[in-house]
Amino acid sequence: MENILPVPQHKNKPGTSTGQQFWHHGDKTIDSYSPTDGSLIARVYASTRADYDRVVETAQAAFAQWRLVPAPKRGDIVRQMGDQFRLYKSDLGKLVSFEMGKSFQEGLGEVQEIIDICDFAVGQSRQLYGLTMHSERPAHRMYEQYHPVGIVGIISAFNFPVAVWSWNAMLAWVCGDVCIWKPSEKTPLTALACQQIIQDVLRNNDVPEGVSCLVSGGRDTGEWLARDPRVALVSATGSTRMGKAVGVAVAERMGRSLLELGGNNAIIVSNNADLDLAIPAIVFGAVGTAGQRCTTTRRLIVHQSLLPEIRNRLARAYAQLRIGDPLDPTVHVGPLIDKDAVAGYQKAVADIREAGGTFIVEPGTLTGAGYESGCYVKPCVAEAQNHWPVVQRETFAPILYVIPYTTLDEAITLQNSVPQGLSSAIFTLNLREAEQFLSVAGSDCGIANVNIGTSGAEIGGAFGGEKETGGGRESGSDAWKTYMRRQTNTINYGATMPLAQGITFEL
Ligand code: UN1
């Protein structure tokens, strides 16, 4: 795998970068194992605190220059980055698939998300709009403008090892910010590859060293970003536990955070659903990325009259799933990220059984030829109850819970009765049901879909969710505003000094 991408060819890869430069000082390494075959694919040097401080100082200096580059010019640089990702789409998609374990198709899809957000950001670079207001005072003008916030720290998760970085970085860059990326310690190599892929663009455009930074490490490194008052915004994607720690640390120093945390996404299948549409959407939603998307379908809230048919159809569909090497184009489901994730899956299965749940599609861990890494599990479907603790928590694995309902009100209540609030969907051909689901009294999630599944959001919409999902919004719509500070300006072009609210103040 090492020669397909312009990853630095040292035996151990330097894991700290300010753009064109890569280096390391300490000796601590992060080992990247492919869950596909368990092999050690790279060793990346972890950033030391001194490395981190050098990165932040370089980023600060870069910001002073980068913010002066006109936004459409910054957009043009992002456009060139998009071209680079087009060039390396297949190679990077393959590396994502190999390092993380998602199917090659999904690896390609992830790189496509980078390309899409680059295109979006280019357009956005000419649309950093503020409003104008009419002043209550004569000969006064009011308007607002948006300025960059400064350094944006990006903490990303293993499951979308490159796309989530790009949603943040590409927007942040057109806004005039500089970025420090801390990728997941489970996928350090794909991050290095991205940094390499954009290197020529940075160099050819004389982008100051420090606009695109990378620090490698675990929890400590994330904490440095969260606690550092020099980092204006911390955008963190990952577990709710991690997000709470980051959110508290950033709030304590009055910084800004953008949190995109766990989901517990449900699809409601009404008795008015077109099941030919619903079944493939459910199966892709539940088993895509081996159930490790934050948008994965975890709960299926099914009209009780449909239960026998849903059981049959799901059993038939799951029987066709091919589990194995994600780079094999015929495979639907690759491995989980590591053995800890397998243990999490096994714990959830045990909890379901203990609570009295039964399986429509049986769980299991795969062994033998092709499964030597010990990370392959069988996607399973359980009949369960919504209030069970195992159903209430997010297990990053392909486990789908089927929960029956009788009235749509009840289904919506079940759908909302979890701590998380990311994505949701209803399958129905009934207009009243669809609109009720989307209404103020409907889904409480950041994403609510009709007749499509919970995962696979396009980058054009704002992405994120409510409650324990953290409230942040990334990628499309007006998510760019999070990366900027708003300034309200009032200008007096007259010859008198009237006060607002009609106050008189005579001297
Ligand atoms: C994530 O799992 O962190 O909507 C992001 C989706 C993808 C992004 C998922 N576009 O499933």
TrEMBL record:
Its EC number is 1.2.1.3. Residues 1-29 are annotated as: Disordered. The active site is at residue 260. Residues 26-488 form the Aldehyde dehydrogenase domain. The keyword Oxidoreductase applies. Keywords: NAD, Oxidoreductase. Belongs to the aldehyde dehydrogenase family. Homotetramer. This is aldehyde dehydrogenase (NAD(+)).
